[in-house]
Amino acid sequence: MGKKFYIQMFSIHGLIRQDRLEMGRDADTGGQIKYVIELCKELSLKDEVERVDLFTRLISDKTVSQDYSIPVEIVNDKFRIIRIQCGGRKYIRKELLWPFLDEYVDKTVKFIKKENLVPDIVHGHYADGGYIARELASFFEIPFLFTGHSLGRNKLEKLLGDGMSENDINKKFKMDTRLKSEEEILSSADLIITSTQQEIDKQYGLYENRKTPVYKVIPPGIDTRKFYPYYHNMIAEIEKKEKQIYAHASVLQELDRFFLKPDKPLVLTLCRPEKRKNISGLIKAYGKSLELQAMANLAIFAGLRKNITEKEENERDVLTEMLLLMDRFDLYGKMAIPKKHDFELEVPELYRIAAEKKGVFVNAALTEPFGLTLLEAASCGLPIVATDDGGPRDIISNCRNGIIVDPENSDEIAGALKKIIIDGSLWEKYSKNGIENTRKYYTWKAHAEEYIKLLKRNYGIDPADYLDKGREGTKSTGKRLSSIKHLIVSDIDGTLIGSDGKNPDKLSGIISRNRNNLGFAVATGRKADSALSYLKSHGLPSPDIIIASVGTEIYYTDRMKYDRGWHTHISHNWNPDLVRESLADIPFIELQNANDDSLFKVSYFLDPGRDHINIIHEHLNRKKCRYTIIYSAEKYLDVIPYRASKGKALRYLSYKWGIPLDNILTCGDSGNDEDMLRGDTCAVIVGNYSSELEALKDSRKIYFAKKMYSEGIIEGMDHYNFLDKIKENR
User: Fold this and answer.
1) How does pLDDT run across 368-390, given as a tens digit for each residue?
2) Domains of the chain
3) Pairing of strands 215-217, 191-194
């Protein structure tokens, strides 16, 4: 059958595990977590799939379950949940994770290198998962799939409509960052999977890059083994049957606490406590209709809660309004608002209990991209009343099991509920249609089959061929760096290429002949494009990596991919304006170029002087700058972020790509190479070195070559038997 697919899924927020899903715990635990778990489980059963890994955030926090701190959770022999730490270990809501996503990308790259297995497909869920999948797809040149679940522009419109200011929205939800990321996702995704056509037209249609990607509508499914009809008992095992009986009794007992007449039909809703879900609209519809109150009870399961005052502001407002409306319409004895429910066992029983009571399930959300709870209810035989929007339109069109209503018209909601409850034959028709048609149109098996067809059709029998076809067998930089174990990192001017102007042909040949097992990088004060052009003019092969601008920028030269992880890392506490201000009045330095567009480097000409460097340190420390000073050739001074330098960039790359420091040959000739040469690498200082490196002669780990320039590098290779080590580790 050819190579099977290795798929990596990304759902980053962290509150996700293989079972006992905490649906409705907070805004991050909606239908998305159910969607990705069920999708991964079903894909893992397909013969065409080698492995599915679902990546999320590792959380070790007393406020959440210890399950979320397990680094690798085995679901079955082909499906794992991989948890990677970023932004510390405490649980934080997804909007606050944006500054840490590049850290997540780096650690995922490290995981891929350690596993020695590059994915064939990356699939991001929600905007943050899409950001990470997009970065990985770019590194490894593999297909990038995306499922938005909900999009920022829709949320922005709704929040503005609710009277929230743009400033407050951006402060709380990091909306500018999210919208920018979503536009970038649309510009580069190979395929976007949606649940409905409405998502494409009304949600993605709001974006500038809406016409760029290819879209495919694949409705999600449900587990019909769990959400089976109210009149069946499909559980054979005694132990599971006992659990089901207990869950059934527990739900009934909880509902009976609220109702004066518990035998009446049950109007049920199950959703998160957020304004978009329009819980208040449903309560008003029920509260205004004395006829509906007389014929049915109302149960609202609005997420999980212990103390309303401890919830997020949006959720707290919704829950408080529920209680106020209950009091306003005097619904005591008729309305239930339980604090918790177990999704695994109790929720399916809740649907079946409502069906046994000849009740109705309601989704009165103001907007609804899909609505998995509608399918769950329908699969159990419970008729539905749903908002006239997106997913509900498709579900009722396919299943013919309920009534579409205007969610802002309370009379229409109440009228639809009464119509179904009063008419027994209509109730039976909707119940039967829901059971039959959910199994026809909405199963994860059907979803997974269509998903695999798309992969095979678009990315071939061997997904590894994607984007590599026609490239004469070359690999992306990401794939190369994932496979190699040795690396040469060299300064350019005065090291690789000398003042004699000779091309380093011998060294070029050594690098080219060992390219399958040896990576090549340069570390320079030049900008990346200048470095690349200069190397080419001297006949050197294109490097895999350029550490540019004295270690403040990292580029992967295959399509000049910029390393955002390094950018984010060195940005911490860097203030170039404060650096310029601190050094403005010093007479023995001169700013090299006031219009230099380098974000992370402030460069000066420095007059020689015994205490000049100490004076500069004093000025910078007085202003509490965080910085690193690079002094070279006795006249150049660069002030860069304290986290940056050639050496720190080198160690970052060693960590990210899993290349041990003692497998890296570092080569330099001047002071701005010094921290790259110190430490555990195989360090070579060429024979034409500057005097500022004299102090390193005391180090036994650094080899001072007698020959100059590239010949000195080759001499250093021989000293360390570097090429022999490469052959041994092939």
Assistant:
1) 878 889 999 999 999 999 999 87
2) 5-217 (3.40.50.2000), 238-440 (3.40.50.2000), 484-572+643-730 (3.40.50.1000), 575-641 (3.90.1070.10)
3) parallel
